[in-house]
């Protein structure tokens, strides 16, 4: 490879390693049992010590190596000195070996905006934590294929938890990293926990096996804990053969790219740009699409409002079908930005 890697490739390579560090922090806090939970706007909007430490780690690590990028994190944290053990200085050599798509090879740090959700699926994380401390790793059950079915424990919710780092240029999500800290948790003690997937427009997506829902089955994944009449009406309008209710925007996109669901439907405000930037980039890198309920793209410039006010509609294929099924009541209630 001639010359030094493009700035955006170095950023993605760092984000990959930084996301793994954040995932390790998320695991460590869970195992400690001291979650340090605070309610931000209510019982469905929580923040834990893991959210705070993971965001500090991600933002401080990336800022140190890329001082001119704009980083927008979910958590509003006081300015304070970050402990050195939270800083991750490594990068993925595998990513650096890849050739940067020509249209991004000349990008400068100051042109890039990074959207960070340090712990997507906090509600599920806290529920799983309560269960985790009532049994040992060896007692963790295998979860069934129906992830909407409650188990005797809530440990399957650990699958819902992700760390999200999205990279945007000119308002478009162009690259993203998703870490699943508890991937493989159901294999019990001794299993290697966690995985990291990433993707970039023009390059593809890596770290998972791309699959599609077989045949013409419509399997809709939607919110587990933020439902309302609009959400339910919109899901039903898709005429799904099956509905999977899981937590976390990152996790729902994983359902799409791994062939467990064919559409992610959330006809409500509530999702933010840090929830969707990284997952959208990975989905788009494999030919999928994420829009609002009107079929319009979201913008990820540094100065946009954080709320995805017109809901989320994401698919791997047949996006137009799902857009066409959105009820008028939903379109009227959720105005495009």
From TrEMBL:
Cited PROSITE patterns: IMP_1, IMP_2
Sequence ranges of Polar residues compositional bias: 137-147
Record region (Disordered): 128-147
Entry annotated with the keyword Phosphoprotein: yes
Protein name per the record: 3'(2'),5'-bisphosphate nucleotidase 1
EC number: 3.1.3.57, 3.1.3.7
Record: residues binding Mg(2+): 74, 117, 119-120, 275
Species of origin: Sander lucioperca (Pike-perch)
Keywords: Acetylation, Hydrolase, Lithium, Magnesium, Metal-binding, Phosphoprotein
Required cofactor names: Mg(2+)
Entry similarity comment: Belongs to the inositol monophosphatase superfamily.
UniProt entry tagged with the keyword Phosphoprotein: yes
Pfam family, one: Inositol_P
Any GO molecular function: inositol-1,4-bisphosphate 1-phosphatase activity
UniProt record, GO biological process: phosphatidylinositol phosphate biosynthetic process
Catalytic activity: 1D-myo-inositol 1,3,4-trisphosphate + H2O = 1D-myo-inositol 3,4-bisphosphate + phosphate; adenosine 3',5'-bisphosphate + H2O = AMP + phosphate; 1D-myo-inositol 1,4-bisphosphate + H2O = 1D-myo-inositol 4-phosphate + phosphate; 3'-phosphoadenylyl sulfate + H2O = adenosine 5'-phosphosulfate + phosphate
